[in-house]
Specification:
Blueprint lengths: L3 H26 L7 H27 L5 H8 L2 H17 L7 E4 L2 E7 L4 E3 L6 E3 L6
Helix pairs in contact: 1-2, 2-4, 3-4
């Protein structure tokens, strides 16, 4: 349980993570085809930013005991999905995965490019594989 005098700090930290995720998505939604090299780079940066703060928020909620690992896994439907997200983030940030290298357009927004989710990502040791649970990011 979080002491009353710390609840505002926790709320501010959660809002910070959420605002950075929102900002990244807002920037991504502005990127319309045709994608220039600079736009592709920005897309990679913004998806990296999104996943950095998504994983940071998950970790923060666990650290503060606001959500258990089991609750997060239940929300994401499987442990693989949690590990996929975590290792996708690591692949983007630490190993330079370019998520903008393959994409699709949406019927209701034909100028928006949505990167295809890599079918699998591996951990930092290259030993464990985690499979995508969605076709697009």
């Amino acid at each position: 349980m979080i002491p009353d005098n710390k609840k505002l700090d926790v709320f501010h930290q959660m809002a910070y993570f959420a605002s950075l995720k929102k900002y990244a998505i807002q920037q991504i939604l502005k990127l319309e085809i045709p994608l220039t090299s600079n736009k592709e780079t920005l897309m990679n940066i913004m998806y990296g930013t999104y996943f950095i703060y998504l994983v940071a928020l998950i970790d923060f909620l666990q650290e503060k005991k606001l959500l258990s690992c089991e609750e997060i896994i239940e929300f994401l439907k499987s442990k693989n999905n949690l590990l996929y997200i975590r290792n996708l983030r690591n692949s983007i940030v630490h190993r330079g995965l370019e998520v903008s290298s393959a994409g699709a357009t949406l019927k209701n927004h034909p100028k928006l490019v949505v990167p295809l989710a890599p079918k699998e990502v591996v951990d930092k040791h290259g030993k464990n594989k985690y499979f995508s649970f969605t076709s697009n990011l």
